[in-house]
TrEMBL record:
Domain N-acetyltransferase per the UniProt entry, residue ranges: 123-261
Xref: Gene3D superfamilies: 3.40.630.30
Record keyword Transferase present: yes
InterPro entries found in the cross-reference section: Acyl_CoA_acyltransferase, GNAT_dom
Name of this protein: GNAT family N-acetyltransferase
GO molecular function: acyltransferase activity
Keywords: Acyltransferase, Transferase
Residues annotated as transmembrane: none
Amino acid sequence: MDKNEVREIFDRVMRENARPDGPGALVERVGGVVRQSGSADHWNGVVWSDLNQDTADAAIAEQVRHFGLMGREFEWKLYAHDLPVDLPERLKAAGFVPEPTEALMVAEVREQLAHAVELPEGVRLVPVTDAAGVDLVARAHTLAFGREMGGSKNRLVAQLAETPDQVVVVVAMAGDEPVSGARMELHPGTGFAGLWGGGTAPGWRGRGIYRALVAHRAAIAAERGYRYLQVDASDQSRPILERLGFSVLSTTTPYVRGAGV
């Protein structure tokens, strides 16, 4: 994989030409910024920017005004290769707070098909297609991360109901207990499928469930003709994904600003 080439493709098709990530969201380009706006359950924020020393502050102020008038907390999803180089300092000066940095990782789907993993005894993967299944995913999320899914739970239910061809959700069950949940967001025409979730309950970690969830989704992506799998990887997930052949293309840091102008 030519990492620079793939990163350029990712920036163009997934960021600059981003599409709404769920029903009811709006993506628009305003000057040098591409942003998504929606309800409180949607992800609200900036996905791409093309700024320089002369345009950055005005663009930041415009996003603060826009989302402030909506009463929305929002995120500026900043990548390490975004310009200008002092954009992080400009965002912090405008009241944004950085959250933990993650690695932008990509692998070719066909290379993941060789990484099938046996699940621990008594664990099975169950497709999620409705609100009851999302409840199981939400329980697994709380066990894995120690926090609730919040508005993303409602958004996931809406995605499954209204755009089921663009999302795949699966939960790992140990008997009647959900121990891990994950989803894959499919972006038609881009070649990219995004892997999200995959956190595992503490008592089940280190037993191959995360790797099995990656392999399961990779097989579905291959069936549907996607070329790349993309992950925003935490420090915990990154070593596992590197062993599976994922490459780091950049890093991404969420800069978050509370509601209000």
